[in-house]
């Protein structure tokens, strides 16, 4: 399980960090994380996070969430996710949505979860799109809407998200052919907003 979480943790790191001048430090932390030396990874990422690096901030949030290299602390996870999310980091926005959806150290708040998933999804984040589709399907934080659910699941599925691929099959059992056609048209017309402008 730890190995799966380790690999997942690295998958959620945004690739744009390669253009950051602190890339060498980030890469050192990444290599330590891959080697499951979580304490070292945390030590390497922490100063970058304090300097404002959103990818490092997101990873600190992830490590606090799962108790990797540090004691599990949902409050600190939320704090670091929020710092990165406020800088427009879509992965952190999705992670913050999970904090509110599942009530990790905070009361469950589906409306906040929905808003964070939406911000991630609008930037093209597949996990955010998948979670947004789920929120529409269940009517959590938003009015239930199977057409919107299908649209977002389709967008996530096109990026290879297995849960979204499975969701499409379930949705096709409850939607009419006309609704599926509408949802597919919405998905085809959708364009990502691109990175958020940070003030």
Automatic annotation (TrEMBL):
Residues 1-24 form the signal peptide. Keywords: Signal. It comes from the Bacteria. Pfam families: Sel1. SUPFAM superfamilies: HCP-like. This is Tetratricopeptide repeat protein.
């Amino acid at each position: 399980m730890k190995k799966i979480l380790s690999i997942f943790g690295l998958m959620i790191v945004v690739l744009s960090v390669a253009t950051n001048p602190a890339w060498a430090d980030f890469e050192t932390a990444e290599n330590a994380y891959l080697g499951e030396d979580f304490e070292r990874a945390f030590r390497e990422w922490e100063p970058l996070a304090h300097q404002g690096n959103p990818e490092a901030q997101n990873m600190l949030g992830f490590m606090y969430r799962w108790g990797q290299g540090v004691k599990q602390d949902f409050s600190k996870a939320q704090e670091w996710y929020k710092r990165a999310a406020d800088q427009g980091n879509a992965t952190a926005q999705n992670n913050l949505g999970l904090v509110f959806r599942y009530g990790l150290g905070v009361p469950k708040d589906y409306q906040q979860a929905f808003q964070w998933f939406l911000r991630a999804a609008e930037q093209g984040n597949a996990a955010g799109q998948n979670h947004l589709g789920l929120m529409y399907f269940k009517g959590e934080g938003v009015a239930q809407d199977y057409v919107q659910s299908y649209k977002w699941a389709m967008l996530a599925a096109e990026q290879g998200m297995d849960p979204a691929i499975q969701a499409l099959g379930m949705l096709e059992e409850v939607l009419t052919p006309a609704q599926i056609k509408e949802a597919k048209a919405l998905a085809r017309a959708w364009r990502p907003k691109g990175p958020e402008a940070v003030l």
